[in-house]
Write a structure and sequence with these properties.
This protein is α+β, with helices and mostly antiparallel strands and about 270 residues long. It folds into 3 domains: about 130 residues, no CATH class; about 30 residues, no CATH class; about 90 residues, Arc Repressor Mutant, subunit A. The chain contains 11 helices and 8 strands. Strand 7 and strand 8 form a beta hairpin. Helix 2 packs antiparallel against helix 5 and helix 8 crosses helix 11.
Length: about 270
């Protein structure tokens, strides 16, 4: 059972584009957050707004903490905007990532949140203007209406990550963070290892991972399911959806270290 930041409780075991093509209800704990509600938006504005004395680093970290389900996309946008990107490029990039991440936040809303937190800035290019044509009604003296064209000119610009956001991004160490999580879940190390090895051979579906671990005695008390481990491995970049679950380079490094540790223990 999982309760999100908004007080909603759900038992949703989500696997994007799984074999059944739909989300299935499961009885496991899930770190799945439904976002985009008006109340959530107001809360985020209050928590991540530009309050006196709060640095950009603090506001960016607060934003990432407030939206754990969107953290990957937000960080990816920071990295993507190392080079100046047009609004269309940023939106297309965001939409591509959202294919495997359920969110009611639009690309525009995510950009706005990053901008308010001090992670992105919009730089207008006064030399690059775009002309649009609008049709507006004109009321004549006799009361009749006719339409006329209005040419509107708007300055175009690009999105760019701030230095503070890039420093934060470059300081990330997913491998160390993953090791910390595995240390905290020490009793489940065998389950994590089994999933990483299974998905290293070839991409696997959620159903295959269910079969692999769900009936293991280790997961009976307290009751756990494969989604619990997939979620954590994915959060720390050890598993990625490609569009089935596949072990990443970070996951392979963990497997190598596990093998070395086991070899040293045997000696």
């Amino acid at each position: 059972m999982y309760q999100d930041d908004h007080g909603f409780t759900c038992e949703l075991d989500y696997d994007p584009l799984d074999d059944a093509g739909v989300a299935k209800l499961d009885e496991e704990d899930q770190d799945i957050e439904f976002i985009g509600l008006v109340g959530s938006q107001k809360r985020l504005e209050a928590e991540c707004g530009d309050e006196p004395g709060r640095s950009s680093e603090q506001r960016i970290n607060d934003l990432l903490s407030s939206l754990p389900a969107q953290k990957k996309i937000l960080l990816a946008l920071i990295d993507f905007c190392r080079s100046a990107r047009s609004p269309q490029e940023v939106d297309e990039f965001t939409q591509a990532m959202q294919k495997t991440n359920r969110s009611v936040y639009t690309p525009v809303m995510l950009r706005q949140l990053l901008e308010e937190a001090g992670a992105l800035i919009y730089q207008q290019d006064e030399q690059a203007n775009e002309e649009t044509v609008a049709v507006e009604p004109l009321t004549q003296q006799d009361g009749s209406e006719t339409e006329y064209l209005v040419v509107q000119t708007s300055a175009q610009g690009n999105w760019l990550s701030t230095p503070e956001a890039l420093v934060l991004y470059d300081a990330l160490d997913p491998l160390s963070n993953l090791k910390t999580i595995l240390g905290q879940d020490n009793e489940y190390l065998e389950i994590y290892r089994r999933i990483l090895e299974f998905c290293a051979d070839e991409p696997r579906s959620k159903i295959e991972l269910n079969v692999l671990v769900d009936d293991d005695p280790l997961l009976q008390q307290p009751r756990r399911y494969s989604g619990y481990f997939i979620d954590r491995l994915n959060e720390y970049d050890a598993l990625a959806w490609m569009p089935l679950w596949k072990t990443t380079d970070i996951g392979l490094k963990v497997l190598v270290e596990c093998a070395l540790s086991e070899g040293e223990a045997e000696q």
